[in-house]
Amino acid sequence: MLWRRFRPEPTATVVRREPGSATKLRRVLSTVVGFASDTAVRADGEGRYATQIRPGWDVVGNANGGYLLSVAVRALREAAERPDPVTVTAHYLSPGRPGPATVTTEVVKRGRTFTTVAGSMDAAGKRLLQVLGTFGDVSTPMGPERVEAAPPDLPPPDACSAVEPTDTFPPPFMGRVDLRLHPDDAGLASGAPSGELRVRGWFRLRDSELIDTIGLVLAVDAFPPTAFNARLPVAWTPTVELTAHVRARPAPGWLRCAFTTRFVTGGFLEEDGEIWDDTGRLVAQSRQLALIPRG
Amino acid sequence: MLWRRFRPEPTATVVRREPGSATKLRRVLSTVVGFASDTAVRADGEGRYATQIRPGWDVVGNANGGYLLSVAVRALREAAERPDPVTVTAHYLSPGRPGPATVTTEVVKRGRTFTTVAGSMDAAGKRLLQVLGTFGDVSTPMGPERVEAAPPDLPPPDACSAVEPTDTFPPPFMGRVDLRLHPDDAGLASGAPSGELRVRGWFRLRDSELIDTIGLVLAVDAFPPTAFNARLPVAWTPTVELTAHVRARPAPGWLRCAFTTRFVTGGFLEEDGEIWDDTGRLVAQSRQLALIPRG
Known about the structure:
globular; mainly beta; 4 helices; 14-stranded antiparallel sheet; 36% strand; homodimer; Porin; two-stranded antiparallel sheet
C-alpha cells in the first residue's frame, strides 16, 4: 500500500479519463504484459530465482507492495512445490523499482500438509522484502463451515467508479488492474473523501486474465488506502508488514473486496482486507500494518 | 492456541478449584518462576541464543504458542537492539516440550526507525517456529489518532470466571497466567458454550508481574479458542501462523482482551485478538490462522 497522495489535493480533473487512450495503450501492451508474465520467476541456482520488477506496476515510481509480494510468493511457491499460498507475511524494507531482482528461498519444513518457506527479495543491492510463507492446497473445501460475515454490498461493476491511472494519483499501477470503487467510497480520488476508514470495490485483472491464489496476494494490496477516505493528515501509508491468508481458490470473475481500518494510533494503522469471489465465498483475508507519516 | 479439548466433554467438575492448593503451589514457585525468567535467553555465539522451554507453560504437554513465541521474540529483540516488537509473525512447525532450545537470529535490516530480524527456534532436533519480526520503540504516541472500536465491556475481574489449571482442561498453562473470562463466554470450560465465536476476558501475569510488550505476545495466544464457544466439532485448533502488532506499551494492571472468529471455512479459522490496557488504550492486535481438525 505504497500510495502517495500529492499536494495539491487530488481533484476530479486528475482522474479524468481520456476516452480511448488508456484502452488503446492496454490493447497494445496486452500481448506482452499480464500479471502472470509480469510476476514470472526463473530458477537460478539452489533456492535462488531470478525475476524482473516490471514497469507499470508502480505508484509514482515504486512498485506496488502486493505486486512485489506476488513475485516473491511465486518464487517461494516454486520452492515449496505446493500450489497455494495458505499464509504469507512480508516485511517491507525498501521500495522496489523496475529492473532485475532476485528471490532467495529456504525451505524450512516439508510436512504432510504444508511446506513452509522463508525468503527474501533483493534488487539493486538492497533488500526489498523479507518473506515467510506456508503453502498447501486450498482447492478442496473441508471441515465445518461457519461464516459470521457477508460479502460487501456493491452496485454492479459498471455502476461503480472505474479507477484509471495517471502519472500521480491514481497511480500508474491502476493500468494493470481493473478497480471499480463503491460510489460511496470513490470520493477519495476526487477530493471528496467519505470520512469513513473504508474502501470497497470490485477487482479483476486486465484483459480478463484469470486470478489464481497468487493473484489474491496482489488484490489484498491493490486498493487506495482507507486513510484517504478519512479526513486525516496522511499523504501516504507505507506498509511495514502485510499478512495474507488464502482460504480458497477464487471462481473466475470479479472479486468483491472490502478494506477497513479501526485503529489509527501511535503512528500506525492497520488495514484489514476481505476478498470474496463472485460465488459469495471468502477467498482471502489480509491485514497490514502501515506507517502514517504526516502529509 | 494449541489447546486440546478432551473427550469426555469438559464439565464443571473438571475445572473445580481445590481451594488453597493452586495458590499454595504458586506461592512456592513464585520465587523461582515468572514470565520474564521463564522466557529468558542467553547469547550463545553469533546471532544464537540459548534458552529453556520451561515446564508449566503447556497445554497437555505441549508448550503454549504464545509462550514459545515470547521466548523467540525475546531473542530477536536482543539481536534487534530495539525495545519493542512492533510486528511479529510466527509459523508453527512442531510442538515444543520442556527442555533446552536454541533461537537463531539474522538481522535483516537496521533502519533509522526499525530493525527487522528473521529467526527460528529449534529444540530436540526439530524446528519449532520460524519467525519474522520488526522492532522499534512504541513508548511515545505520535501522529493522528482515530479509533473506531471500544474495549470489550467486561464485569470487574472478581465478577468474572477465574480459569484454574488442571492436567487436561483447562490446561496447566493456566497456572502461569491469571485469566478471568466474561461470564457470558465462560461456559466453554463447563460444557455450556455460548454458541458465539467469541471469548472475552481479563489477563494478567501471576504474582503481579508487570507486562511489557513481550508479555503482550503471550497475551494474544493465552485464551481458550473461540471455537470452543461455538458448537463446532473441533477438539483442538493448532496454530499455523500468528501475527501480533504491538501498538503501545501497556499501563500496569489488568488487560482487557477480546477474541473473535468470523470465518470457519476450508478447514481453517482465523482468530482476531484485541488487547486493551486498563487506561482504555489498544496495546496489541493479533490474528492467527488455525487448523480445525475434526474432534
